[in-house]
Every structure is written in C-alpha cells, then in structure tokens.
Amino acid sequence: MKIAVAKEIEVCERRVSLIPDIVAKLVKQGLEIYVESGAGDKTYFTNADYEAAGAKIISDVATLWSEADILLKVSPPQDREDGRSEIDLLKPGSVLISFLNPLGNPVIAQKLANRQITALSMELIPRTTRAQSMDALSSQASLAGYKTVLLAAAALPKYFPMLTTAAGTIAPAKVFIMGAGVAGLQAIATARRLGAVVEAFDIRPAVKEEVQSLGAKFIEVKLEEDTVAAGGYAKEISEDSKKRTQQLVATHVKNSDVVITTAQVPGRKAPILVTEEMVRAMKPGSVIVDLAAEQGGNCACTAPGKDIVWNGVTIIGPINLPSSMPVHASQLYAKNITSLMQLLIKDKALQINFGDDIVDAACITHGVEIRNQRIKEALQTATV
Ligand code: NAD
C-alpha cells in the first residue's frame, strides 16, 4: 500500500503532513511512503532527510497523486497553477486525509464524491478522549493561541510584565481574551507567562474554572439560553444575547491594552464581539489580534490577512497562524494524521470501518456518497 505526502501549494501554507521522524516509524511498520520532492522545504526538512527515513522521493506530481492509496495533505486540495485540479489527480477509490473545510466549502465534498474518493476531514475528528491524539484542530489552535500573544506583544508600544526599575515602575499590560477554547486558553497561559494581567470571556460557562486555573479573571455573562451545542462547541446565540454580551465586554475592551479574540462557531461566520464603537473607545496604541479573521473576524474593523491601524488601534487579522510555526505545527499534525491513519490500516491493507465512531465522524465521502448530513444540507445552498 502506497502512502503519499503531497507538497502543499496553498500560498501561505508552510506545513507538511508527515515529518521524517514519523516516516521512519511508518516504514518500520512495513508501509511504503512516497514524498513529493520539496514537500518539506518550507518546514526545513530536505528530500535527503525523508530518504534517510526510508521514504521514496517522487518528482512527478501526477505519478505521486495517481498512484497513492492514501494521500496526505494539510490544506484542502485546490486547482494547480498548471490548470489541473488536485482532486482530479487522485486515483478513484483512494483515501484522502487533510483539512478539507467541508462545512465552509461543501462543494469540495461533491467533487470528492464525483471522483469516488474516501475523504477524511481533520476538522471533523470528534473532540473525545479516544480521539485526542488525532485532534488536529486542537494541536493547531494551541500553536495559534501562543503565537497570537507574541504578535500582540510585538505590536504593543509597551512592556507586558510589571517592572520595578531604578527609572520607575512599569505597570503590567492588561490583556483581554475573548473566546476561551483551545486557542484562547493557550493565549491566556502565554500572556500570563509574559507577565500580563489577563481577563477572559466566553459564553460557555464551563470554561470558568479553566480560565481561573491559568491565573486569569473570568468575565461572566448570564444568558437565558443554552450556549453549548453537540461536541461541546458554542452555539450561535440570539441577537438579544449578542447585545447583552457586547454591553458586558465593552468596558473590558476599553480598559485593555491588548484584546485577543478567538471566538468561533463551527460552520458559521465568526460572531462580532468587538464593534467599531468599542474600538473607537480604546486607547491609541492598543492592539487587537483577531484570530477569527479567516472566518470573517470577531472585530468589526478586522481586515483578514492584514495589519491595519484604525483610529490609533493596531488591528492584526492573521491567516493560518499555525503555518508561521511550521516545524512544530507539522510535527503535531503528522502525529495527528498518523494516529488517524492507524485506524484505517490493518495488516498493511486499507480497512474502512464505519463502526468506529472516529472514522464514521471524519469520513465525509466514500464511493460516490456524501456521508455527512450537515454537508449535504450546506450543499443545497452552495453553488456547485
Ligand atoms: P472553537 O474554536 O470552536 O471556539 C473558540 C471559543 O469561542 C469557544 O470556547 C467558544 O465557546 C467561544 N465562543 C463562541 N462564540 C462566542 C461568543 N459569541 N462569545 C464568546 N465566546 C464565544 O472552540 P475549540 O477551541 O475548538 O473548542 C470547542 C470545544 O471542544 C470546547 O468545548 C473544548 O473544550 C472542546 N474540546 C474537547 C477536547 C477533548 O475532549 N478531547 C479537545 C479539544 C477541545
């Protein structure tokens, strides 16, 4: 059975789906690993590193894709500069494992089904204890949460920690983190390590203890609706609740030096938590880093992919932050994807078992079938 590692072609993608250390372990298990020439270049792994780990380097893209029984990627397949579609390069009946963003871009599922690909979406790995080692959303969100604080600290015209010096005392920076999921919690921990005073807010009351255990103050809002959906994710809240939360957080935004927003609702546009009015009330020189920029942003003034200054406030809207730390991002992703792959391989042969809840949840297409009801519904309103 041939397992192939594709070179990523998305412009801002620097990660790679397998790293040499993990290739060596798979080769030891008797699996054949094929790596596209240059796949590890942006992660500082050379073809020679992969060869030393036991992989074969393939220069011809069409050969790599069309001969793979399992093709591994980080970013969703897309059209190549030479006009060929990556999906059309796949062998019918083969397996693709990658981030696929099927709820944001359901058309991809239709294309994969048309090509009879068994596609597993890394975004749809359930957030359960057994699936923890495969949870790429968490591994990558944690990197993003860390990096977001570094971006904020670099852009802030102040120190983060409190300092008592011969030239006087410096007050610590005040950091407000909105959304305390995986990225938000890592952001809290990182900002605390840098010495900031940290407050955090989330509509899921369950995170209160986690926030406090990291040394931050939890800003609580009591809403009259259930805010938690299946899988522990947040629900989209009513307009009334949105107004109440905005009123509650306005003063905290105003008094902060740094606001970091990470709030997301799967499959939906990110909720607006910081309005124009709130940004206008912030002190000049303050910084907002909007980790939800890719999903439209949590701040009304965010320009996705850009750093802007709005009314004296620096607003950073990073895209694909994990890719800015490609070495560890790839190391963790490679572990996640390999753990998932182990569920699909028995005695060196492919065995897709839909009785396994993880395979069942992650597999979006099999043969010509789209297997996920939410994707089917999203497809009805999408343009194919
Ligand atoms: P996410 O990226 O979907 O969202 C980030 C945070 O934004 C969440 O905490 C969410 O509650 C919050 N949010 C959404 N709308 C908001 C709003 N209007 N105002 C304020 N905050 C808002 O979240 P995630 O980091 O992917 O985590 C999702 C869930 O999965 C969490 O319950 C997390 O604890 C759980 N999880 C479980 C496991 C596991 O058990 N193996 C692993 C990772 C995550």
Note down, in words, how this protein is organized.
Belongs to the AlaDH/PNT family. It is an enzyme of class 7 (translocase). Residues 153-317 form the Alanine dehydrogenase/pyridine nucleotide transhydrogenase NAD(H)-binding domain. It catalyses: NAD(+) + NADPH + H(+)(in) = NADH + NADP(+) + H(+)(out). The protein is of the alpha/beta class. It is built from 13 helices and 19 strands. The strands form four sheets. The chain has an eight-stranded mixed beta sheet with strand order 3-2-1-4-5-6-18-19, sandwiched between helices. Helix 6 (136-155) packs parallel to helix 7 and helix 6 packs antiparallel against helix 11. Bound molecules: nicotinamide-adenine-dinucleotide (NAD).
- Spans of at least 5 consecutive residues whose pLDDT stays below 50 are none
Report the structural category: alpha/beta
Q: How many β strands by DSSP?
A: 19
**Number of helical segments with 4 or more residues:** 13
CATH topology of the largest domain: Rossmann fold
Question: Which word captures the global form?
Answer: globular
Protein name: NAD(P) transhydrogenase subunit alpha part 1
GO biological process, one term: NADPH regeneration
Family: Belongs to the AlaDH/PNT family.
Catalytic activity: NAD(+) + NADPH + H(+)(in) = NADH + NADP(+) + H(+)(out)
